[in-house]
Amino acid sequence: MKPYSKDLRIRVLAAVDCGAPR
Asked: What's the DSSP call for residue 19?
């Protein structure tokens, strides 16, 4: 498990959560 994949996943989750239509 590389930190790059984890960081990328976190960034994607953060982007989705930040740009989630509410």
From this structure: T
Please give the model's pTM, rounded to 2 decimal places. Answer: 0.37
Q: Which amino acid is at 4?
A: Y
Q: State CA 6 to chain mean position distance.
A: 9
- How many separate helices (H) and strands (E) can be counted in the chain? 1, 0
pLDDT in tens, the chain (22 residues): 676 778 888 888 887 876 666 5
- Measured between alpha carbons, how far is 6 from 11 in angstroms, rounded to an integer? 9
